[in-house]
Amino acid sequence: MSKDDTDYVVKLERAIKKKYGQETIQNPKSSWSDEKEQKYLEDLKEVSRRKAQQNEKAEKVETDGFLVSKQLLTPRGRSRVCPVCSVYSFEMKDDLYMNKFECCFQCYVKWVEDREERWISGWRPDKEE
Questions:
Q1: What is the pLDDT, as a whole number, of residue 10?
Q2: Which among 94, 116, 115 is positioned nearest to 105, based on CA atoms?
Q3: Residue 16: its pLDDT value, please?
Q4: CB-based contact 104:85 (threshold 8 Å)
């Protein structure tokens, strides 16, 4: 097969078909449908949404002259001080209880555990306790 041959493309397609099968020389549009198009567009939107979330997490913010990952910064509304016992905490497990019950793990064990309904309704221990 030389490139000067007028049937070069036809012979090339036949050789590809013989080696890899009929699907390799088919036009991709021949098996495309409206359902596949909808599914493709939905998947494309999902991928785009995920990339936007990743970019937002990786975004850098200037703080005191330094670039810091936005993910590392604590939102201003969240405090690391327990409103019940006034203890400052760096522990990850306290974050869970701060978000859910607005107290640290120690206060959860002492005041909230098995009395969650009362806590959610608004009861808090006195400052003397």
A1: 87
A2: 94
A3: 92
A4: yes
Cβ contacts of residue 108 below 8 Å, gap of 6+? 97, 101
Rg (CA), the chain: 31
Is the residue at 58 inside a domain?
no
SS (H, E, C) 11-50: HHHHHHHHHHCHHHHCCHHHHCCHHHHHHHHHHHHHHHHH
**CB neighbourhood size of 94 (10 A):** 20
Report how many domains make up the chain.
1
70: three-class secondary structure by DSSP: helix
What are the pLDDT digits (tens) for 17-70?
A: 999 998 888 888 888 899 999 999 999 999 999 998 888 777 787 877 888 777
Asked if residue 107 belongs to a domain, the reply is yes
Percent share of the chain, pLDDT over 70: 89
Tell me whether residue 50 is in a domain.
Answer: no
- Extract the tokens encoding 35: 């359902």
